[in-house]
Amino acid sequence: MEPMNDTRILGFHLLGLSEESELQPIIFGLFLTMYLTTVFGNLLIILAISSDSHLHTPMYFFLSNLSFVDICVTSTMVPKTLSNIQTHSNVITYAGCVTQLYFSVLFIGLDGLLLTVMAYDRFVAICHPLHYMVIMNPQLCGLLVLVSWIMSALHSLTESLMVLPLLFCTDLKIPHFFCELNQIIHIACSDTFLNNLVMYLSAVLLGGGPLAGILYSYSKIASSIRAISSAEGKHKAFSTCASHLSVVSLFYCTGLGVYLSSAATHNSLSSAAASVMYTVVTPMLNPFIYSLRNKDIKEALRQFFRRKK
């Protein structure tokens, strides 16, 4: 099949979760509900933290950044999906696809890096409590977030620039509801060896590296908790990590599910459904996990709504 040179004009076709017309209103309702829940839930977390001076600590500073990134993740993908369903069109322009690719890689990568930073924060708080405020000073916290943004932005820029030279054939169908990197590389007609090499190397470094850091931090945390003599002390120490552990498990388990499903099957529906769990459901659940398990967040939300009455 000969490569075609007018991809930049024709664009791509996003197949989404289903092409059956009777399912489109249901999918639209689900996506709209999940998107609004994600945006409002994470916005409430950010507002609660910013409005309560007691929450101006490193842990909540990182949490507010994570909530902002979660809003950005879903905003990169879901509005376009809703627009496609509403207009009965699955076309996305070449420029729009590359732009969506850039921001999706940026914010998903940033999610993983921020979770690693939060694990380091919990490690310092539990393993070195007397030096916590000295180590986790505002300058270091700001630097950790800045470095996370820079690393994720450089990775995203590299992946996006490497997609630009690719040529595509007449089949411009992407079996996803957004422009996913692996799927774009898969449908290209030109040589994609370098793209695949960079993609898998990045997955090891920016996926496996942060996960290794999180596991190392929690191995040290577990050792410190075991050394605590009182059961109450152990419970208090563990409770400060429970929400973060839940979010980490959800993030990496759903992310692993995406890649296992795409590797094990060529069914576009199952692959897209796995991506929904990874990119839409996880950001939606994060505010519930932190607010339901965190007394400080719940109290800050109560105070926030009392002031608004």
List descriptors.
309 residues; mainly alpha; three-stranded mixed sheet; 11 helices; 3 strands; 78% helix
Overview of this protein structure:
The protein is an all-alpha fold. It is built from eleven helices and three strands. The chain has helices spanning 7-10, 24-51, 58-87, 94-127, 132-135, 138-163, 181-187, 193-227, 231-264, 268-292, 295-308, and strands at 12-14, 91-92, 173-174. A three-stranded mixed β-sheet has the order 2-1-3. The protein starts with 6 loop residues before the first helix and ends with a helix. The model has no long low-confidence stretch (mean pLDDT 86).
Give a brief rundown of this model.
By secondary structure, the chain is mainly alpha-helical. It is built from eleven helices and three strands, in the order H-E-H-H-E-H-H-H-E-H-H-H-H-H.
Strand order of the largest sheet: 2-1-3
The ordered string of helix (H) and strand (E) elements is HEHHEHHHEHHHHH
Number of E-type strands: 3
What is the radius of gyration? Answer: 21 Å
> Residue share in helices?
over 70%
User: What amount of the residues lies in strands?
Assistant: under 5%
Measured between the Cα atoms of the first and last residue, the distance is 65 Å
Q: Runs with pLDDT <50, length 5+?
A: none
